[in-house]
Automatic annotation (TrEMBL):
Protein's organism: Mucilaginibacter robiniae
Designated name of the protein: Uncharacterized protein
């Protein structure tokens, strides 16, 4: 699915990222030059990050809760921001309980 900012930021519940994010992820990372953007350009493109701090900003791609209240799987897109506010790299971080 082609990246679309409004669908990327669409949320029914604040605990869950947009259901479109997993489908748009590949287009976003392969057809957009993310490294080299400045912080404000990235925020303009993707919207408010889900987490930020320590020179990193991240966007949830997928969260699965299974049957309980704690997540059993998460996938996020994490960006490293340099001291001069440029996106220096990004990576996908997955966690499974």
């Amino acid at each position: 699915m082609k990246f679309d900012k409004s669908k990327w930021n669409e949320q029914q519940d604040p605990l869950f990222p947009s259901s479109y994010r997993p489908e748009m992820f590949k287009d976003l990372t392969t057809n957009n030059k993310l490294v080299g953007m400045n912080y404000n350009q990235l925020i303009a493109k993707l919207g408010t990050p889900d987490n930020k701090g320590g020179g990193l900003i991240s966007y949830k791609i997928m969260v699965e809760y299974g049957g309980g209240i704690d997540p059993v799987y998460t996938k996020e897109l994490r960006f490293a921001v340099s001291k001069d506010s440029l996106i220096s790299s990004y990576k996908v971080v997955e966690w499974r309980k």
